[in-house]
Structure formats: structure tokens, C-alpha cells
TrEMBL record:
<comment type="similarity">
    <text>Belongs to the ribulose-phosphate 3-epimerase family.</text>
</comment>
<keyword id="KW-0119">Carbohydrate metabolism</keyword>
<feature type="binding site">
    <location>
        <begin position="194"/>
        <end position="195"/>
    </location>
    <ligand>
        <name>substrate</name>
    </ligand>
</feature>
<dbReference type="GO" id="GO:0004750">
    <property type="term" value="F:D-ribulose-phosphate 3-epimerase activity"/>
</dbReference>
<keyword id="KW-0413">Isomerase</keyword>
<feature type="binding site">
    <location>
        <position position="65"/>
    </location>
    <ligand>
        <name>a divalent metal cation</name>
    </ligand>
</feature>
<feature type="binding site">
    <location>
        <position position="34"/>
    </location>
    <ligand>
        <name>a divalent metal cation</name>
    </ligand>
</feature>
<comment type="function">
    <text>Catalyzes the reversible epimerization of D-ribulose 5-phosphate to D-xylulose 5-phosphate.</text>
</comment>
<keyword id="KW-0479">Metal-binding</keyword>
<dbReference type="InterPro" id="IPR026019">
    <property type="entry name" value="Ribul_P_3_epim"/>
</dbReference>
<feature type="binding site">
    <location>
        <begin position="141"/>
        <end position="144"/>
    </location>
    <ligand>
        <name>substrate</name>
    </ligand>
</feature>
<dbReference type="InterPro" id="IPR000056">
    <property type="entry name" value="Ribul_P_3_epim-like"/>
</dbReference>
<protein>
    <recommendedName>
        <fullName>Ribulose-phosphate 3-epimerase</fullName>
        <ecNumber>5.1.3.1</ecNumber>
    </recommendedName>
</protein>
<dbReference type="Pfam" id="PF00834">
    <property type="entry name" value="Ribul_P_3_epim"/>
</dbReference>
<dbReference type="InterPro" id="IPR013785">
    <property type="entry name" value="Aldolase_TIM"/>
</dbReference>
<feature type="active site" description="Proton donor">
    <location>
        <position position="172"/>
    </location>
</feature>
<feature type="binding site">
    <location>
        <position position="9"/>
    </location>
    <ligand>
        <name>substrate</name>
    </ligand>
</feature>
Amino acid sequence: MRSPAIHPSILNCDIAHLADELARVSSADGVHVDVMDNHFVPNLSWGMPVVEAVLATTSLPVDAHLMIEDPDRWAPAYAESGCDVVTVHAEAAAAPVRLAHELHRLGARAGLALRPATSVEAVADVVQDFDLLLVMTVEPGFGGQRFLEPMLAKIERARRLVGSAGIRLQVDGGITPQTIERAAEAGAEVFVAGSAVYRAQDAQAAISELRSLAGRHCC
Ligand SMILES: O=C(CO)[C@@H](O)[C@H](O)COP(=O)(O)O
Ligand SMILES: [Co+2]
């Protein structure tokens, strides 16, 4: 039985104090870095230099969530830099299977993300080449949004698609103590949490609480 993994998203952390902000979440299972290009999503965050700074500062595995156009071109650099998982959006990747193989060749695990409107069935033919399936539980682009309840049924379908062997099922967006149990019950096992961790007075306590709530139902 695998234990639930909590990956704090640094999107809304105090980037001027990146090292301190990473230290606040040192008990997490990974760090989630949201890369946004203001084309695939209506927001601009950061790219390789910040990801490299995160990699140089934390010993936790880094999970890069690329909300960008043309990931076939840009994602390999994130694998080369040492990210543990590089996740690309199914809606943006031109040749997802080829890209997954390239990420593997460069030493990273490959993740495939779905916008809320993209069905699980749309990736049924390609998901087997990936290590992680990410079901977005908010519209990608911003932290601090409300969890989309209709995504619970989609998480259940995603769990049926990936089965119990190999491919990890991640959820991202609006994960809080109020929503994580239902996401875990539906089948998620890797939980991205931005505001719920970084807005907490004690981020390590927030991580423990989320992990223990998810652990009641998962995995
Ligand atoms: O990818 C995204 C948003 O597009 C996320 O990773 C958010 O940054 C998570 O933040 P919260 O919803 O947990 O505040
Ligand atoms: Co994200």
C-alpha cells in the first residue's frame, strides 16, 4: 500500500525568500513548480531559472507542471535540469508518447495533465507511456481557486484507467483539509496544495494534516 504524497505548490509563496519558503515545506514529499507562459494559460509565472534555483535549494523531488504551449520543444530541458517529474498538458503536446520517451531518456519521469474539460478517455491510448496522470481540479492558471466538485467523478474514471499498478494519480487545485478526503476517496494519491500550505501559519503542520486526512482513504 502506497502512502499519500503531498506536493506544495510554490506559485503563491514569497518568491523573494525562496530558500526560506522551501525550508518551510521540508517535510513534504515533493515540491510542485508551476510554469506558465501566458499563452496556454492567462498568466505568466517563471521558467528554467527559477526551476534551477529550486533544484539547487531543496533536496525534495521537484515536480514541474508545465502550463505552456509547445511542450514538445521546451519540456526536455526541465528533465535535463534534474526535475523528478515533468508534467505536460495533453491539450498542448503534439506527440505525447514521443515526448514521454524523450523525458525518460533524459532521466525524468513523465506526467500528463488534463484540463477540467478534457476527458480521461481522450488520453486512454497514450497514458500507459506516462508515470503520472494529473487531473486538474481547477482551471489551470491561478492558485487559490475553489475545488471543482464535478472533478470527483473524473478522478474516479482516471483511477479506473490507470488501475493500481505504476501510473500515479495526481490532483491539483483547491486541495484543502475540506476537499482532500473526497479526492483521496475518489482515487487520487499525489496531492498538490498551494494556498492550504503556504497560507498556513505552520506549513509543516498543514502538510501533516493533509497527509493524515488523505491517508484515511488512500492509497
Ligand atoms: O497548477 C496550478 C494552478 O494552475 C496549481 O498548482 C496551483 O498553484 C495550486 O494552488 P492552490 O489551488 O492549492 O492554491
Ligand atoms: Co500546478
